[in-house]
Here is the input.
Amino acid sequence: MIEFHLSGRSGVAPYLQLIQQVRQALRLGLLREGDQLPKVKDVAAGLAINPNTVLKAYRELEYEGLVAARPGIGTFVTGTLGGGPSLAAHEPLRRDLRRWLAKARTAGLDEESIEALFASTFHESAEEGIA
Amino acid sequence: MTAVVTTEGLGKRYRTKWALSDCTLSIPAGHVVGLVGPNGAGKTTLLNLATGLLAPSAGTIEVLGGRPAAGPAQLAKVGYLAQDAPVYAGLSVADHLKLGVRLNPGWDADLARDRVTRLDLDPRQKAGSLSGGQRAQLALTMATSKRPELLILDEPVAALDPLARRDFLSDLMETVAEQEVSVVLSSHLISDLERVCDYLIVLIASRVRVAGPVDELLSTHYLLAGPRRDPARLPAGQEVISASHTDVQSTLLVRTADRILDPAWTVSEISLEDLVLAYLSQDKPKRDPHRRQPHLRQRPHLEVQK
Here is the structure.
């Protein structure tokens, strides 16, 4: 069972934070198919947030095909995100990224410049992907 | 949308002074509704009229389809927690529960007992010697154990320390998840409201200035910053809530259902607190015309605790 947390300073709406945390847990393998998500009542009480916020997040996840609600029992994971084969691809990709980072540092880029370069390239390529 | 509270031209006069006048609003069912506004806006008067503790001097009010406090059935449908969470200081916690059984036809004794156990309250302790947080929890127990359809809370956490406030709200949210009860609560603490409320009503001088689902409000208000510009020349459909200008720059808070397309603007989303402050500062005369972001700085009558 995972536990949710909320950041008041992130500027991200609470229901989106819950969705991101479930997706993250799926990606990292903390949640697998068949696992139960925390009960709406427990999340509402634990974080002192409106139960409708939790329901909204769970509905969205259900719409994405990642979870399914079983009335009277709870909400369960039914899908996966980047698990299985793509997890195996992580390690070589991480090695490439490390090499690239080392090159960037050798070229004299500081942390902020590296982050900015990565973010702008990432956005560019994401936009090309859409177009 | 069914309403739990509907008012039409509602007013309450004390001698010559109107505490609430010509108030027309509708509070939807199935939400946790936050009622905010400056001191003197009429929030407490409105809530007291909804419970029937006060009778209107003008206009009408309907609560869950009936007249407030019209009879035992109407009284049983509404739970009320007044400011400062009043309890009977001389009675023990157990006495309060006994009183609950006698006074409320729909009293859920199991729920009340469970809550007292879960909250770790000693049944023999006199309510007068409880801490502020425990007193508020006992008062909430009394209000929820009668199984109301509507729970009205007037500044429930204002007097509590941060930990007690958090416990109280967590308890309240659990109750909402379990009981499907509609809640109306007034508060100055907007950071709390942002988490617990899914519907907001801003009341200024008896008038509803803005009302709607919190998500919808947040997704239709934007902070725009860009080269100086006359707010009157914005596209139709962009309502300016607050504006400030320097000689070269304009900063506007606008409400619009459409996307902001003008590339001259840097567009940011705003928090619920910024939104409420913008509406509250709207009616205040600006002291310094060159102040850059009045809606973020002027905090009239507001206490913001994190």
The radius of gyration of chain B is 22 Å. Chain B touches chain A through 21 residues (CB under 8 Å).
